Amino acid sequence: DDVGLREQTRVIYTSDHGEMMGEHGMWGKSTMYEASVAVPFIMAGPDLPAGSVVNENISLVDSFPTILDAVGAHLAPEDADLPGLSLWPLARGEATPQRIVFSEYHAAGSPTGVFMIRGDRYKYVHYVGLPPQLFDLTADPQESRDLAADPHFAPVLADCERELRSMVDPQAADSAAKAHQEAMIESHGGLEAVVAAGPPFVQGTPTPPAFLRFRPDDDIRL
Q1: Rounded to an integer, what distance in angstroms lies between the CA atom of residue 89 and that of residue 76?
Q2: CA 203 to chain centre
Q3: Among 93, 128, 163, 210, which residue's CB has the most CB atoms within a 10 Å radius?
Q4: Would you say 12 and 66 are in contact if contact means Cβ atoms under 8 Å apart?
Q5: C-beta separation of 62 from 86 below 8 A
């Protein structure tokens, strides 16, 4: 506004992951619950409808093609097979792709790989070597009821697993991630040396001491 660029400026506001902040009795960010895996994404510009809300799934992999589109640039040939779509048509109401979004996690001492796919209704969370989770985000947006063990939802669970495996081999991906982590640890002198070194090798958001007094089923307001 101060320099007269409002009518020729587009703005994207987003972030990295969220934080559990006590939801589900958990602290930290390494889960696939919405509090951890969801991010804000706000777009503004002279060619976008102000105040419009789009409920389609998007992903941070959309940021790159969206920014290129915003400035009139084109994908380089070597980037043509990257995932992601420009979000400007979606923000203008010109497209409703009904996409599935994907996330995975292996880091920070995670005992197993975690993979998530989210469609227009269901979220499926796959743990390598452990039981999966299934949530109906339309009926249960707070993810309070895991449907994975309910026989009624067995077909949905099977469809979700097939969809995930069409994207990635969970076991192979997790094995590769763990092997790379072990190699990195060894390159820094082994586990004891890394732990003794402290930050930046070992760090994270500490759990507030007051939070430790609560039980997981307490109604916590932070």
Answers
A1: 21
A2: 20
A3: 128
A4: yes
A5: yes
| Residue that the structure tokens 């992903």 belong to | 59
Residue among 131, 128, 130, 133 at smallest CA distance from 178: 128
Residue 174: name the closest of 141, 127, 218 by CA: 127
pLDDT-derived band at 220 (thresholds 50, 70, 90) equals very low
Task: Please tell me the distance from the alpha carbon of residue 61 to that of residue 87, in angstroms, as a whole number.
Answer: 11
What is the Cα–Cα distance from 209 to 32, expressed in whole angstroms?
A: 24
Which residues make Cβ contacts (< 8 Å) with residue 179, sequence separation at least 6?
none
With residues binned 3-state (H G I as helix, E B as strand, rest as coil), the percentages for the chain, rounded to 5, are 35, 15, 50
Residue 77 tokens, joined: 């040939």
Peptide bond into 200 cis (omega under 30): yes
CA distances to 82, 121, 149 from 77, rounded to whole Å, are 10, 35, 45
- Could you tell me which residues are beta bridge partners of residue 130? 127
pLDDT tens sequence across 148-182:
999 999 999 999 999 999 999 999 999 999 999 89
Minimum mean pLDDT range among 39-53, 130-144, 194-208: 194-208
Closest CA to 12 of 88, 78, 77: 88
Segment 53-66 shows an average pLDDT of 91
Q: Which tens digit of pLDDT belongs to each residue from 136-153?
A: 999 999 999 999 999 999
